[in-house]
Every structure is written in C-alpha cells, then in structure tokens.
Request: fold
Amino acid sequence: MERYSKLHLWMIILFLIVQISIFNYYWPTFTTESWEFHVHYWLVTAWYIFMILQPYFIVRGKIEKHRTFGIIGFLIAGGAIFTAISLLDFPLKLVENHNPERPGPPVSFYYGTLVVELVLIIAFAYAVVKGILTRKKLSEHSWWLICSAFYMMPPALGRGLIQFWRKVLPPENFNPMIVFVSAEIIYIPLLLLFAQKFGKMKHQATLIGIVLVVFRFLRVPIGSSEVVQEILKAFIKWQ
Reply:
C-alpha cells in the first residue's frame, strides 16, 4: 500500500503530458472539430482525471467513493473506446486529400497510423478489462489501469509533436521519423520509470507497452501493404 501512496501525484504527470501535447492540436481548431472528436477529447480527459482521483480516494480511506467512481470510470472508458473507433476514418480522410507534390509523410503513414491506433484501442480495452478482473488485487488492479493511461497516450503525444516539429522545421525537412523518435523518447523512459517505481518491470502490462512501441515504429511498412490498405478501406466503409 505504501508503494501506491503517492500514485495520484504520479498520474498528474501523465495527465499534464497529454494535455500539453494535445493543446495546440485541439484548442486552435476547437470550433471546427467534429462532435466525435470533442466527445473523445473530454472522455479521455475524464479518464485521466479518474486515474488521479481513484488512488487519492484510497489514500484518504474513502473506499465507498472509490467504488462508486469506479463504476462511473469504466463507463467513461467504454465511451472513450467507442468514440476512438468512430474517429478511425480520420487518417483515410487525410489520404483522400494527400498531395504527393507537397512536403509531408507518404500515404502509407496514414494507413499505418490507422492500424496503430486500432491496436492501441484494443490494448486500452484489454487493460481496462484486466483492471476490472483484478479489482480485488491492489497491485495488479492499479498497474493495469496505470498502463491503460500509457496505452492511451501516444495519439495525443504524436499529434502534439507533429504540431511542434512543423513549427520548428521548414516543410521540406519535416520527416515522420522525427515525430516517432521524439515521441518514444518521452514515452519509453516514462513507462520504465513508472514500472520501476511500482515494481512491475516484468509485468505483462509493461511488456505490452514495450511491444506497442515496436508496432508504432512499423507503421509505415504496415501501411505500405496494399492488402492492409484494401482491408482498411473496406472496414471504414463498414463503419
């Protein structure tokens, strides 16, 4: 229990990273964003706030409030998953507007991003379910939910760094690999720091977090596959 006494403070770190990352992507275009994106943004924000409040309630001995908020929190998680799925067509919209004569990533980047974000949704859902199933085991329950916050982080982190590098670099020098590397330079040490702090370096949830890094680096090769592209087009049409 002592190991988790400051967990709410640690979760504030993740909350701030996500909010700072997404700020210049979301707020300047607030009035033009789709309702799905608005709802998704606020549900994800609510999940991170939930991840701060829940360990705080435990530390303060407010067990009943923790359980009540737990029910609400898992409804928030379900909503975040649903709205994330509804936004999967966004990369394909960028493909439709892609101009190969303009500086920027290839179309394979967008297809690969769609696959990566679908896998992240699945990983997040899995972590939430594991968090529910292990709710009577504090260490397991806490770590699965902590990792759910990590699994949810990369899209916001990546979008924020795209905005950052586009402001710093001239268009002809912008390369998606710069975004990949800089995002993982933040994500990997932070995940490992949390894992070391809470004694979960070899835990399944930690290993999933590392495997997701490898998967994200493969987004362009994955998105280059014509088979993958056709499957995604069919899937999005079904949506």
In short: The mean pLDDT is 90.
